[in-house]
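Sanity check

After download, print the first record. It should look like this:
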Amino acid sequence: MCGDAAAGEMMSVAEQFLDDQMHPTVIIGAYRQAMDDILEILRDQISVPVDVDNREEMLKIVRSSVGTKFVHHWLVIFVVVFHFLWP
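Expected C-alpha cells:
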C-alpha cells in the first residue's frame, strides 16, 4: 500500500492521537476514510482513460513511470524489452 517512509509518517502523525487516548480503531477509520476520499477524487477529477491496446500510449506511460524510479539508468533497456514482449 505504501512505502516504509510513508508508513512511518502515518505512524508519526497518529502518535499524537494515541497520546490523547484516542482508540486505534478510530485512527484507522479516519485513515481509511481519507483513503476513500482521495481515491474518489483521483477517479472522478484527476484520472484519464487509457487505451491498454494502444502500444504507443502504453510505452509513453511506462517511460514516464519508470523514468522517475531508481531504475532510471535502465529505462532504455526496459522500454526496448517491453516493446518486443508486447503481444
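If your output differs, re-run the checksum step. Summary of this record's structure: The mean pLDDT is 82.
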